[in-house]
Every structure is written in structure tokens, then in C-alpha cells.
Amino acid sequence: MSAPVKRLKILVGCETSGIARRAFDRLGHDVWSCDLEAAEDGSNRHIRCDIRDGILHDGWDLLAVMHPPCTRLCRSGRRWMSGPGKWTPPKKLPKGRTLDSMLEEFELGVSVFTACWTAPIERIAIENPEMNDLARDRMPHDLPGPQLVQPFWFGEPAYKSTGWYLRNLRPLAPTNMLAEPERDSDEWKRWNKIHRMSPSAERARLRSRSFPGMMEAAALQWTGQALKQVAA
User: Fold this and answer.
1) Taking Cα atoms as reference points, which of 140, 135, 144 lies closest to residue 118?
2) If you write DSSP's letter for every residue of 12-35 in order, what string do you get?
3) Is the pLDDT of residue 92 over 70?
4) Which CATH number fits domain 9-231: 3.30.300, 3.40.50, 3.30.160, 3.30.420?
């Protein structure tokens, strides 16, 4: 009789959509999500909490952090934090914002990211754009560069560069690579709909949603690697 397959204990952090949680759950693992906000699907396997408040120490086999605060950490947000050089006054601020509020968001992003990366969990995947130099200066020394992937690698007709910072997990391999449309064609414009969204109260939430195809690949590949490591 063959030994039973281990059921991994997995935490999906900073997610309300349930897209990643459900992808891992379909493989039969013990999966929970957590966020300050409630789960959109009303799941009873979602914990409302600050991910920094102890849950990272609950004996997880794998941590996948989906949408930690990253607006001030990413390269595109650097111009709001500093002018030329490092930490010089920025030339301009977003309308209605103060530098103090921007710095508060920056510190929150650093705090959440570092808490997750330094958690006592053997396998970690954190979704975050490529960071600016100000953020990199505050990161743990063992943080690698991100693997940058696109949704169309996984059958999703869309452009959105997605960065994964990985510990003890291999980079994602494409599963259903789509042929890219001709630049400036109608299809190409549809693939860029995320970048072309009009300003709205929901824009940030919609832009940060996970792609089901990518998360199906992540769940299958990363749990497969984890199970091999556990069995070794």
C-alpha cells in the first residue's frame, strides 16, 4: 500500500478575491486566506487580520502573498517619493496628498513585505512589482530579484507584468503561451485593458486581481515542488 500524499498547510496572504485560495484548495490542501477585508466569496476559510499579527507563525508549509501594499515600493511610484538622488524633495505629489502620507504608505509596504519574507516558513512566494531603489535599500539582504511573468504565458489574453519573489520555489513555467497580437491592433488594445482603466474608486482593486490561469499554474507547480521536498 502506498503512503498517503501529504496535505500541505498553505496561507494565501493579502487576498480577498479567493482566486489563489481556490486554486490551491482544488488540489486538496489545507488552505486559508487572510486580509484586513472580508473575502469576496464569503468563504469560511478566510481570516480577517493583519498578516503581521502572528498568523505567519502558525506552522505553514507554503506562504503565497498576493497583493501586499506595493504602490510606493514599485519603480513607477518612485517619482512621488524622491527627486534626483535618494530622498530629496519630490518635484510633485499626487493631487490632495502630502509627503507624510506617502511616506506612511511606503513604510507600510516595507513592513508588510519584510514581515512576510522573514516569516518562519520554508517556501515563500510574494507577488510584487519590480522595486525601486529606495525600497530595495530597505529589503532583507537575501531577497532575490523577482521572476517577471505575463498572464498570456498561462492562457490569459492580457498584459500585466507580474513579479514573484521566491524562496525555495522554482520560477513559474509557462503552461499555455498565447501568441501576442499585433501592436496597436484592437486585440492588442484589449490585452492592455488593465493599463487603460479609467480612474475610479475600484481601479486599484481591479488592477491587482489575480489571473486564474496564472494561479492554477502556481498552485500546481509550487505544491508539486513542496511535496517532493517534503518526501525527500
Assistant:
1) 140
2) EES-SS-HHHHHHHTTT-EEEEEE
3) yes
4) 3.40.50
What confidence tens digit (pLDDT) does each residue in 161-197 have? 999 999 999 999 999 999 999 999 999 999 999 866 6
How far is 126 from 65, CA to CA, in rounded Å? 5
Contacts of 182 (CB under 8 A, 6+ apart): 188
Alpha-carbon gap, residue 184 to 110, rounded angstroms? 37
How far is residue 202's CA from residue 198's CA, in Å, rounded to a whole number? 10
Backbone angles phi, psi at 224, to 5 degrees: -60, -45
Per-residue b or e along 206-225, where b marks 16 or more CB atoms closer than 10 Å to that residue's CB: eebbbbbbbbbbbbebbbee
Helices (H), the chain: 19-25, 99-117, 133-136, 186-191, 203-207, 212-231
